[in-house]
Amino acid sequence: MQQLPKIGLLAVSMALICHTYSPLQPIQSSIGFAVLGYLLSDYLIPATAPYFIKIGLFGKDLSKKDKPVIPETIGIIPAVVYLFIMFSFIPFMFFKFLVVDTSGGGSRDTGVDLETADSNYFPHNKLSSYLSGILSLESMVLLGLLDDLFDIRWRHKFFLPAIAAIPLLIVYYVDFGVTHILIPTFIKNIFGFEAVSIDLGALYYGYMAAVAIFCPNSINILAGINGLEVGQSVVLAVLLLLNDFCYLIPASLRSTPAYETHLMSTCILVPFLGVSLSLLKFNWYPAKVFVGDTFCYFSGMVFAFVGISGHFSKTLLLFFLPQIFNFVYSIPQLFGLVECPRHRLPRFNEEDNMMYPSHAVFKKRLPKLIEKGMLILEALGLLEVVKEEMKTDNKTEIIIKECSNFTLINLVLVWFGPMREDRLCFVILLLQFSIGLISLVARHTIAALLFGYDNLSIFNLSILSSN
Amino acid sequence: MQQLPKIGLLAVSMALICHTYSPLQPIQSSIGFAVLGYLLSDYLIPATAPYFIKIGLFGKDLSKKDKPVIPETIGIIPAVVYLFIMFSFIPFMFFKFLVVDTSGGGSRDTGVDLETADSNYFPHNKLSSYLSGILSLESMVLLGLLDDLFDIRWRHKFFLPAIAAIPLLIVYYVDFGVTHILIPTFIKNIFGFEAVSIDLGALYYGYMAAVAIFCPNSINILAGINGLEVGQSVVLAVLLLLNDFCYLIPASLRSTPAYETHLMSTCILVPFLGVSLSLLKFNWYPAKVFVGDTFCYFSGMVFAFVGISGHFSKTLLLFFLPQIFNFVYSIPQLFGLVECPRHRLPRFNEEDNMMYPSHAVFKKRLPKLIEKGMLILEALGLLEVVKEEMKTDNKTEIIIKECSNFTLINLVLVWFGPMREDRLCFVILLLQFSIGLISLVARHTIAALLFGYDNLSIFNLSILSSN
């Protein structure tokens, strides 16, 4: 009896996947695959978790009273489930083209293509773009797993996403090759440019590689409390889906390149949401599994994939604002300006079961410039410092003894006071969602002012592609 | 000074890769990448091997006097190197199309395509086929690694290659979809068929999945002595390359589909040979590393990929004759007709450092039918048995006490007597190469008789594609 709801869900997912003549294709199938992915992952995670502990992939949860041993690297399960779902999704993604072109049985459709040359031909370039994205994702999962197994050094692992992104960038190069970016109207006016876009050439590939490096690593850095890695990935996916819907819902945008692009983005994100929610269920406070670097890399690469292949990497970065803030804010400790303890997790207090901001304690006096910087941050409400007044001769000097560690998690605790771990995670996720929602509105209003038009208009991508 | 030859090789590889205007493109680049792959893998294997032991991936070499501890699963290194080489190879594979079509900078080449519709358009379907093959390979490597880590049960791991082959089969379905096979002339004559080919439909996908399951598993079964897994993969790759050259060398075959198909096969196999040779160097007797299931799966899938995407899976299976024999020969033990000891490796004799056939010892009397079968095999020289004559009443009965284990490795020892491990491996590889060479000649002479023509003629594939 307990299995009844699951069997019902399975039936629903199959119905959604197989009812291919629906006007909502391929989104309807992708929802079906999301449900299937959720069920598969939900079955496999508890079934395989003990084997992870057996082969030594486990860690202690330091923010609990009894410091339980918890299986690590479980993110590999939803990641592998996702990959095989996305393989199976291919015929449904391209269903309308299959019916038109390959029903003849055995005839290569490129032959059909040249004869009947209409807009309904099989979109080989879309298929290559899709396959290259999945290849990058799978490479990321493979490298992430190797990282979790061998504990690759920080300065090496930072670049793993760039290696994994190679298929995506190379297929972009051979198959699409657009390296133009639009010039904002105000810059055109100031410098008197006539062109609407500028060709960045090879630099554009450097930019895309940087996006691919940033997304996975920034998720990996904003981590350390139960549910945060998966939670932020779920929030990011929801925000990107909201952005996609802006292009999918207005009927006037049908049959534009922007529609196709955001349709693919939706089809990639919906199943990702399915497998991530199953992982979140087990990773939420009190966590029964840890996700590992594998999951952070995997989810970051999903976002890089949709952003790069869909040409909205700037919008993507808007939704990453909290991650960008966290990275910039971490710089003083990451680059050694301020002493960086081995762990910067918030401090767990066993007595009240709450999380407190953790502190870096300075044994030696800090350089004056850094102390001044810290005092400015404190005045801005961006740092908690413990200081001491010292009277020498005839003046009073302030010496900084401790400061809260430079992470967004600690900062949230500084702002809102001590909280239990699940509440802390929830507040950060709410922050991410609110900032993302504001960015989304801003992006579709201010962008129109800066660039002279917004790409919610049907003219936008046709201008790009005519260049 | 010791590094000089390697630096020289690196320079050679770079020159081969980058000299893209050569008439030998893309084979020349693939040779360059093979050299690069050899060097990379040759550097990474000894550099990473100690870390494999550290995380518990090691095994004891039981066929040595001191039973040394040896790192296991090292096959993941050449496999990952191969994958990333094949990513980087994409622009060189399609170089001639890039120069023609995407030099305009930023224009999608499908647009160019429809206007200039000549034979020189960018081959998107070749790119998708290539990407799907690499995806299947990478999935196989990922699943192989999970198998090596978690020691998946035999009855589950047997089907892992079919799961990994999904991208290959699905892209075959959406993009190519030919499910016809040719009917041999003599069958046509007997049954009075008029068609030259028959459409197998969905059955053809079952057949391709079976090929994908067979190749990796058959390599995994013919294993157990130093160098054999990699050695047979190298021999198979060389045989397939010889078959490819039959189509690449005759000038009359240029610009036929068969030429293009075997060009791609060559480009896939040459870098595989590069990385495999570096692994063979460390895995050859006395082995410094073990390759793991990862490598067997990986190499088997490389062969399945070229066979399936190149439409010569029957020729491929010809070269697998020793593996097919080994599998069929193993059936009595695999399916429990004859007792199967936990290890069927040949027996190592510490005194003379030689390998002897290992035996299955029977505690109970075997069923009469099985004893009779064994005696027939013995008479055919296909089994070594230890028997005992027993006189009951007035007739003499023969009881079988022991028999050599049913593997090709043991059979070779039965045929040629005890040998040292490296010599044994060499003899098996020589056997494989000889049988393959005979098959190759037979395939291009007898096939012409059976099918009415050989596909070394330019008509062959055009007949197929016109159906």
TrEMBL record, chains A, B:
Ranges that cross the membrane: 7-24, 30-53, 74-95, 127-146, 158-183, 203-223, 230-250, 262-282, 294-312, 318-338, 424-451
EC code(s) of this entry: 2.7.8.15
Cofactor(s) the protein requires to work: Mg(2+)
Top EC category: transferase
One GO term of the biological process aspect: dolichol-linked oligosaccharide biosynthetic process
Family (UniProt): Belongs to the glycosyltransferase 4 family.
Protein name: UDP-N-acetylglucosamine--dolichyl-phosphate N-acetylglucosaminephosphotransferase
Taxonomic lineage: Eukaryota, Fungi, Dikarya, Ascomycota, Saccharomycotina
